[in-house]
Fold this protein.
Amino acid sequence: MSIQQALKTIATIETLQPVYCIQGSESYLQQKVKEAFLQRMAITENDLNFTQIDLELFTVDQLIDEAETVPFFGDQRLLFAMNPYFLTSEKKTNGPDHNLDRLIEYLNSPLQTTVLVFFAPYDKFDERKKITKRLKKQAVLIDTKPLAENEVKRMVHEKLKQANVDIEPQALEQFLRSTEMDLSKAMHELEKLILFASATGRITGKAVEQLIPKTLENNVFELTEMILKGKADGALEGYRELLLQGEETIKINAILIGQIRLYLQVAILMEQGMQQGAIADQVKAHPYRVKLAMQQSRKYSRSELEGLFDQLVENDYKMKTGQMTKEYLFELFILQTANRLVGR
């Protein structure tokens, strides 16, 4: 069930189902579902008919004991089961000893007086496990996996519309790049932009630049763009700013290696006729990152990308073995590459 359908159903259905499973790593959407259940049942987290159990700390036996507890002056209890890692292939050395047979037994015949909601912040389950199969069969499944680019944009626009604030198209792209198309991060940072634009009712690129902090990955992405466009002065300035911020050259070089590796992987898969979604699955990267990589990799030949990758890997080796000064090596790479690619 999609998040939009789920929120509507939770709010309007006559009787809630006894078991739900909320699967996906998008924390903003998981929080929306939590709020929807609490609002629907008109209870707070301090209510006697509400319990939250972290299954990384407490056992399934404790969870089932709570599920089998009679509601206190009410028709139903609400029970949140957090982090059911046993649904995945993950193994915890110091985790609690879970009696999964008892959980399967409960799922076969859940009590109607308890609404048991599993919050599983994982994008993939281990489908081979008996407990996973049983839960997926018995529970109402709600998808909270990371959204596609168009869905993130839609939700950002909806929030802005509610606040009567507009955003420039270029500022929106800049904002989504700075928040790495992460819905949770985007919604959090959007609050600042809305407050800043309360007087004018419009968010500009300058406002995004001033208010939204950039991660090291964001800065290295921009650095990569400047190098590949042949803008040596801008690239050197960006690199030196990162040094002033305390970033290590070896770390910057490593992220740049990862960026060029992604461009190269995308270029190879595009040659094979694969589309954005399939490429994202293959390289295990966010579709938005793949989209940007596709735009960049089209501008360069495969041999050029391979040459850049080899040079960065060689520089990494020289830096770590102390053959040459790290800063000198990286600045030399910027100058040589930018001069070769100027005008792209």
User: Anything to note?
Assistant: Residues 149-211 form a domain with the Helicase, Ruva Protein; domain 3 fold (CATH 1.10.8).
